[in-house]
Amino acid sequence: MFAYILTRLASLALILVVMSVLIFLVTQAMPGDVASMIAGQFASKEVVDAIAVKLGLDQPLIVQYGRWAGGILQGDLGRSLVLEQPIGPILMEALARSLVLAVVALAVVAVVGIALGVLAAVRRGKLTDQMVSGVSYLGIAVPDFFWAIVLVLIFGSYLQLLPTGGYTPISEGFLPWAAHLVLPVVTLVMMLLARIARLTRSSMIDVLQTNYVKFARAKGMPESVVILRHALKNALLPTITVLAIDFGLILGGVVVIETIFSYPGMGRLLLFAIQRHDLPLIQATILIVSAAYCLANLTADLLYAFVNPKIRHGMRAS
Amino acid sequence: AGTLKVSVDSNLNTLDPAKMKGGQEYVAAYLIFNGLTVIGHDMTVKPDLAERWEHSDDLKTWTFHLRKGVKFHNGRDLEAEDVVATITRIQDKATGSTARVNFEIVESMKALDPATVQFQLKSPYAGFAELFGERQARIVPRDAVDTLASKPIGTGPFEFVSFSPGDRVVLKRNANYFEEGLPKLDEVVVRILPEAAAQVAALTTGELDLVWNLPLEAIDKVKADTKLKVDSVPTSTWDGVIMNNVVKPFDDPRVRKAVAMALDKQTITQIALFGNGTPTHSPIPPSHPYFNTDLKIAKGDPAGAKKLLAEAGYPNGFEVTLHTPAGRATRERLGLAVRELLKPAGITVNVQRVPFDVFLKDIEGKAGFYIDGFFSRPTIDTSVYPWYHSRGSWNTALWSYSNPKMDALLDGARQAKSEDEAKSLYTQVQALAVEDSPGVIPYVINHINGLNAKVKGFQSHPMMFLDLRNVSVD
Amino acid sequence: MMTAPQAHPTLQPAAAPAVTPAPAPLLDIRGLTISYGNARGTLRAASDVSFAIRPGEVMGLVGESGSGKSTVAMAILDLLGGGGRVDAGEILFDGVDLRRLPAAERRALRGDRIAAVFQDPFTSLNPALTVGRQIAEPLIRHKGLSTRQAAVRVEELLAEVGIRDPRRVAASYPHELSGGMQQRALIATALGCEPKLLILDEPTTALDVTVEARIIDLLAKLCDSHRLSALFVSHNLGIVNRICETVTVLYGGVVVETGRTGRVLSRPAHPYAKGLVAALPRITADRRHRLPSIPGTVAKLSGAVTACVFAPRCPFAEETCRSQPQTMRMDEAGDGVRCWKADALADTPWPDEESGAARPPRALPQRSAPLVEVENLRKIYGANRSILPWLRRAGTVAVDDVSFTVGRGEVVGVVGESGSGKSTIGRALLALTEPSAGTVLFDGADLTERVKRGDQELRRRAQLVFQNSAASLNPRKTVGAAMDRPLVLAGKGDAEKRRKTIAGLLTRVGLPAAYADRYPHELSGGERQRVNIARALATNPDFVVCDEAVSALDVSVQANILNLLAELRDEMGLSYLFITHDIAVVSHIADRVLVVYGGTICEEGPIASVLRPPYHPYTEALLSAVPRLAEDGQETPRILLEDAAAAPGGRGCAFAARCPRKLGAVCDEQAPPVHETADGHRIACHIPLATLAERAAVFPELMEGDARH
Amino acid sequence: MTDATSVRSVPRRLNMSSLPGSLIVGIVLLAPLVVAAVAGSWLAPYPYDEMNILSRLQPPGPDFWFGTDEFGRDVFSRTLVGTGSSLLMGVAATALSLLAGVPLGLVAGYKGGRVGETIMRAMDVLMSFPPILLGILVLAVTPPAQWKAIAAIGIVYVPQVVRLTRAITLELMQEEFITAARLRGESATYILFKEILPNIWPPLAVEASLRVVFAILLGASLSFIGMGAQPPSSDWGLMISEARPFVEQAPWIALCPGFALAIAVIGINLLGDGLRALLDPRNTGAH
Ligand SMILES: Nc1ncnc2c1ncn2[C@@H]1O[C@H](COP(=O)(O)OP(=O)(O)OP(=O)(O)O)[C@@H](O)[C@H]1O
Ligand SMILES: Nc1ncnc2c1ncn2[C@@H]1O[C@H](COP(=O)(O)OP(=O)(O)OP(=O)(O)O)[C@@H](O)[C@H]1O
Ligand SMILES: [Mg+2]
Ligand SMILES: [Mg+2]
């Protein structure tokens, strides 16, 4: 197990190194450049060049990369060229907000999605099953931005129940904080629920047909115990994978939802950086997102082991 | 008294006025900083940090006398050296200020004493005082320029408290503000809400007090709400159909003329602005006394355009790509309207949206045919000269239009000694601009703010500034 | 030589009146009719099934695969899944009709008064919960024990089923236990609430013979000591013979015969039962014998029973059989048979059409070079020499220094417990895995080397018949397509010619040529295995490895396939490496046999010699564990092996850790010497040959046969 | 191999009653969309890009069945004409991801070891790139075009297809029919594409149907940030995205393409489920 984690961490480090080079090269290949962005409309070439020199953009790529990577190794994510601020605090703030969104949304998705999936599996072919499918279809059939707008209109404009956007730190009180999260979370849930529910349903159906479930029934266990204790734990593996992927997705930014709900998370930060061609900001953001994604995957794999002792065993062996 | 919550629709790149590019940023600039002069609601120049100013007869030496007792937010007194430092910084190419071109005219400057600063110009310029009303020419403390982008210090009515990119800028009342009893508000929160629907919803729920530059689609809704109101003012901010005069087929004036003829400006104003603007000939708005009322606004004459095209060697029209910057709804609509209106004239337009950074780098000044737009300028000269004079800064980059007659008219207007002289010259400029059609300027836009009825004392500014000095919320 | 069962002169006349009132049955099933329904229609899985189990009695339920055994067992438990429905009948438990009880009350009975153990311990335990917790569940549920009390009881129970370290086992997860231990844990679960009725659905099928023997002994003991009644579902007649007092034979969802075990198995009255008993391979020294088999397959029933269900396959069937449903005729002793001709056929054995016919004796192999030569074969799995220290691993030794030969036209059997390396040897022979050391010569050439060089020609001469007939055919290819490929690869003619070849091959293995268009799922297990064999033959091989090729099959189907393989050997001179864990099967088909344990060959020799003393201690245990029918001879005492504590390995004898005759340290520390006798019989053991030869024969009847010859 | 005994991926006797129900419903839902995709511009009552300033933002009525948008364009006609490009977006992007992902997944699963590891780690890298950035990169190098959006989305989904394919391949590798194939001397290519691939189709059909849906939606999201389809095209995603500001004032602008999208999504999903069942030779019509 320990060896397994070590191996995984080593490969994670390797991935991040590869990613850093890739990110660096790829962002360099992006059209547009920050100097002309800063110079603005119709800046003459000398102006753009002057800015480029000032920002050190004229140096060879390898030097730029070395400086960047060296800084990151020392925990310095660099300075945003456009915002003229150190990237670290900005990024961490956005990350924290995305994290909040991801954790809350995924908690809801996991609980509701798994519950719906289990329900549908248990009542396979019955009305409940079809209703669950129906609801999940509705969730994926309509683009997230459409849901988002409809929610804004209903809960913001008409019912005036919830704030329509923005973010309030929890330090300003739990209720305002929670109120600002409701709509983005609901939209995300609509978007992600279907997959989780369907996945849980199908693996639950498989597990419900296994011998050990039958044996649990033969022991006279009531259905609730059979389903929750015996079946569910074993049915969760694929669900966990997808949850981890979704976690990475939300951390990486759900631009559309963040935009509509004015949620200052990673997605909008990245989009901002891309639109302003702020390379250090783009690079740092993607690197952090990648790292977060890899960590989410690792966590999922460790969760597997927690859920399934056999895999724990396999980890020790392989 | 109270807190005013106002929204802008896009993130602020910087709080350093010299580097500002967008309307949202100017909102902050106007609240935090002052210029030597200010453009008033009536579009005339007024004293701001400079109490008064005088110029030599040849219009080449300008002396400004600073107001006494003005303090920066950090407590230091404003001095003439700060003005010199501010302008020097703008002139530095590496700063990347778009106001740099304005101050190219300055030969030299010096602080005569802590309260007096003098400028020597390369050529006579009557509108020099107005240049200090420009958005980027905010006076900044010379010892704190490096942190302006994230921690701006100015002399303005509000002091900077915090900026969280993508989320909000928080400002508080400047207790030492030099205008007695102003500002009235204790606090201003500028929130960044990119989605129009969210802005309007927030305004309805009272989460916001004011929506700066209200999305056009939402005007009807805000108007319908009795708790809300709409405040609007005509501006000389314009969008244009840019034709590069050195790129085929637009190097032929007949082609440009044909395009201009085919475009029905009234219709375009309807489509792009839902009527919230006024058709015009040039950046001079119809509300301005210099506006040429004799000229007819183009009504759209595809037949005439076809004829001209045939003369220019395009009897069957041609196909062309029109670039529009992505995310600017009005300009995107303008692009689609152009596409539609040029169709009967035989011109096939392929609209192509381009991300803004790419637009800046690869389209503006390089492509043949695109949609662009410009904020209103403080003076008629700054609104016209750079676009139409053959050495005008925008012109050389935008459409490379060159007509000696136009140059003569514009140079003359700069030194015009009387209003009438200036008016007559500018009237001819407009006629020539329509005749040569270096590009098509279909309209000037109304600046519209949506606000809660409880916001008192607010007036929309034709320069799209957010003037909150007299505003209060109860 | 097997003989047909003789009619017993003391059989009571069917009409004799009852003398002693039988005790009221604990479980009384009356007229149980069960069907599975889905969109395709309904399938009658049990029709009018009636039988009774008296208190303290163990009843065997036997019958071909698919005859409805599990269905009946599950119906008692109310666990018929997937569209199964009881249409009619009563299930009286202690006089109460379970079917009338509300679901909750039935559930309360389950695990408490009626407990169950299923076939496969590996899948019956939840991989995510500790074994102790799973055993404790019913105790907490039904007996209201606290978690702590339950934990104490769990350890008692585990100890009772013979687990030496109950505490550790209770804290383990299923995958950490061996199959035998898992099955014991299941039995402990079932016994926990002291049930009155135990339902055992093939509880040992998935286990090794040696482990199986232990479990069966344990069950017999427990049933006895707890005065348990049990329904024992199995198709293994030997085990039923060992443990059951009475037996009920199902065919096509219908009870065709029921009675006391000894009577039914020695003198079956119903034609199907006759066939079943006859098809069972016996330990025998006469490997020229063909097994009797029951031709055809079970007909699936959907409607009401209108004829004898066995009539289509019955060699004694007459017109009446096909037009009239049969009734069960019971006598007082509780024996019953559902065949109107039973009395008339009482003395007629199952027809053995082939055994009588004279077959040309196969030419004995010439003394030429052997076809396959294996020398010092070693295979280590999972060794890793990584630069990263935490990744380095020594790996498992699957095969440890094995040498043997297979002659042309020879059948070499390989027996040994699960994991002993049988399959690995087979795979190495076919160049499917690369040996870690040693050489495999095929017809004098190094096969692995050839294959590596891209020469597939030699490889085609060595083929494999798999255990799992379903997994070895691509479900998305028709039989024809599967068989076509080898021909295409061998460049055997155009499409038309190949089709002819395929038809010929199918006919050769006894399938209609039209089967070429079928998909694997449209075939029965036996048919699929035939297709497998036909496919292996398509390349015209000289050598076929049969890896548990008949283990998954029903006795009657197994008999069929064994006959087919023997025929092919005789006619085409094929050589086989026959891997199995069934000694009877090996004794039936093999010329020579290798007994492997822990990756080493512990005994090797002609089959007749291996079955007779001297025995290697492991061979002796293995042979003693073979379940037998009563008529096959006296039950000899079983040599029960402890569960393996650790994987075999190290310097000494692989079997040392479990050897009941272990001498001492020498066994652990020195590789055993090989004793060889004149006829090529070799035993690797520290115990002197003479001492080994002193042991009594496990199959005394073979010794008699010896004397006779 | 084209003779009588060649591989058949669908069962022989195809009759209506043996078709899975979900397949039939899926086809019924998708049929009109396919017709619209092929013949949309002929069927449309108005040109998709014709502006009619006098009748902008008209509610549904006899002239404009589903109303008009802010340019006075007929929403119904636009939806009809947009069918092609919207479906193309989903189908082509999915096809691309399958085309790239399936072989990679097969190889990763078959080869294992270093090759497999390398492929999987490369996929991890690709997967941890935020999809939008990939989209922007592909789209921004040169002017946006639909095929580029398709390429971007296709690439985004490659890792997921690889993962799925690899997982199934690994499972199938345990099956003995693979051993049988090796034993008769088949090449790796044959085993991968003729033995394994046909068994991957059913789960892949389900996955692909989900992918098509996600691709359409991601295309819409790209439109949202101005990267996907270009105006005045009437791609559904673009239409719905452009209708946002008018949701209150003129909800019908979003309704028609939204409806079409929902039908497509449900239809494609059902089709996927049905195909899985159909591709399974064990299918006997029971579902
Ligand atoms: N869930 C089900 N749906 C439909 N048919 C079924 C189902 N379960 C079993 N059957 C069918 O019912 C018949 C009896 O099955 P059952 O499992 O009782 O046989 P069995 O005697 O236990 O066989 P085996 O020895 O192989 O375990 C078989 O033909 C089987 O195909
Ligand atoms: N691919 C593999 N990787 C690692 N270990 C393996 C592999 N295949 C087999 N083994 C191990 O090698 C040993 C011998 O396995 P093998 O399959 O040859 O046994 P077997 O005698 O055929 O058993 P069974 O009767 O269960 O089929 C076992 O301990 C097994 O766990
Ligand atoms: Mg069974
Ligand atoms: Mg094996």
UniProtKB/TrEMBL annotation, chain A:
Record CDD domains: TM_PBP2 (cd06261)
InterPro entries noted in UniProt: BPD_transp_1_N, MetI-like, MetI-like_sf
Membrane topology type: Multi-pass membrane protein
Transmembrane segments annotated in the record for this chain: 12-30, 99-122, 134-154, 174-194, 235-261, 281-307
Cellular component annotations (GO), alphabetically ordered: plasma membrane
Source species of the chain: Azospirillum ramasamyi
Alphabetical UniProt keywords: Cell membrane, Membrane, Plasmid, Transmembrane, Transmembrane helix, Transport
UniProt KW Cell membrane keyword: yes
Pfam families, per the entry: BPD_transp_1 (PF00528), BPD_transp_1_N (PF19300)
Domain ABC transmembrane type-1: 95-304
Gene Ontology terms describing biological process: transmembrane transport
Subcellular location: Cell membrane
Superkingdom: Bacteria
Family: Belongs to the binding-protein-dependent transport system permease family.
Descriptive protein name: ABC transporter permease
From TrEMBL, chain C:
Principal localisation: membrane
Pfam families tied to this protein: ABC_tran (PF00005), oligo_HPY (PF08352)
Annotated localization: Cell inner membrane
Molecular function (Gene Ontology), one example: ATP hydrolysis activity
Sequence ranges assigned to domain ABC transporter in this UniProt record: 29-277, 372-623
Family of the protein in this entry: Belongs to the ABC transporter superfamily.
Protein's name in the database: ABC transporter ATP-binding protein
From TrEMBL, chain D:
Pfam families: BPD_transp_1, OppC_N
Keyword vocabulary terms for this entry: Cell membrane, Membrane, Plasmid, Transmembrane, Transmembrane helix, Transport
Main location: membrane
InterPro entries found in the cross-reference section: BP-dependent_transpt_permease, MetI-like, MetI-like_sf, OppC_N
SUPFAM superfamilies xrefs: MetI-like
Residue ranges of every copy of the ABC transmembrane type-1 domain listed in the record: 83-272
Residue stretches spanning the membrane: 21-44, 87-110, 212-230, 250-272
Compartmental location: Cell membrane
Keyword Transmembrane helix: yes
GO cellular component term, pick one: plasma membrane
Gene3D superfamilies for the chain: MetI-like (1.10.3720.10)
GO terms of biological process kind: transmembrane transport
Membrane topology (UniProt): Multi-pass membrane protein
Keyword Transmembrane: yes
Family as reported in the entry's similarity comment: Belongs to the binding-protein-dependent transport system permease family.
Entry protein name: ABC transporter permease
Native organism: Azospirillum ramasamyi
